[in-house]
Write a structure and sequence with these properties.
OB fold (Dihydrolipoamide Acetyltransferase, E2P); 2 domains
């Protein structure tokens, strides 16, 4: 059955000599795997350059509910992403977030609220000129609300520990190893307020950013099935470490 929808490119993987597989989070079907022909030339409908990480596309698809690999009939750019293809720091951020999303987005059902959050976030990353060094942190923190794993960070009291496994502050040391120290928990109490509107106000050192992203990834790993280490993390850290941004 033919459908028109919108989608966000997560990644492209080799399939065989004729096709690749492109994983796309769509507005109407959630995450879908599509066969992408490896055709080139002027007559090719779908240029491979369209399918870079986080690309926003308008899609025409053949969608059958029980088919594992769906077919793409046509694809076109829905919003131009110039900086995400040319700015070194934004390219590194986009590659990291696309790998991260490939691991946490397992939904195969319609979720328009989640799609709108992702769509808005990508456009914001593209159009923000300054103060986006904390963007990936605000993104990862905000995404928890849409995945049903938003932690309870409202019950902080002085000297509490944050229990990463149960997603809440506790006055006593948990009976497991997945928790933050008192100092780290106090820092989390302040960091919990971060969002796209105020992210530039958080004056973080590179060491602080590295620590926060480690905490966030540990939290996702504890609450998401099959979450391996991310290969793009070291590149992101190297690029952001070389940027003189706050």
């Amino acid at each position: 059955m033919q459908h028109k929808t919108q989608g966000i490119v997560l990644n492209v993987a080799r399939y065989n000599d004729r096709f690749s597989i492109v994983h796309i989070f769509t507005r109407d079907f959630g995450r879908v795997s599509y066969l992408l022909p490896k055709t080139t030339g002027k007559r090719s409908k779908m240029k491979t350059a369209l399918f870079f990480p986080l690309s926003l596309l308008n899609l025409e698809t053949e969608h059958l509910p029980l088919r594992e690999l769906q077919r793409l009939e046509d694809a076109e750019q829905a919003f131009p992403l110039h900086d995400l293809c040319t700015s070194v720091s934004k390219v590194a951020t986009a590659i990291f977030l696309s790998e991260f999303l490939s691991r946490v987005l397992r939904e195969t059902n319609e979720n328009p609220q989640l799609y709108e959050f992702l769509h808005h976030s990508i456009i914001l990353l593209e159009t923000t000129d300054k103060g986006f060094a904390n963007f990936h942190l605000a993104f990862m923190a905000g995404l928890t609300r849409f995945l049903g794993i938003f932690p309870n960070t409202q019950n902080y009291t002085a000297g509490a520990y944050f229990d990463l496994l149960n997603g809440e502050f506790t006055p006593n040391v948990p009976f497991h190893t997945h928790y933050l120290s008192k100092q780290q928990s106090l820092y989390l109490c302040h960091f919990r307020r971060i969002n796209y509107h105020n992210m530039q106000l958080f004056r973080l050192s590179q060491a602080n950013r590295n620590a926060i992203i480690d905490f966030l990834l540990t939290y996702y790993r504890l609450h998401t099935y099959d979450f391996p280490p991310l290969k793009s993390l070291d590149v992101l850290r190297e690029v952001m470490g070389g940027e003189k941004r706050n």
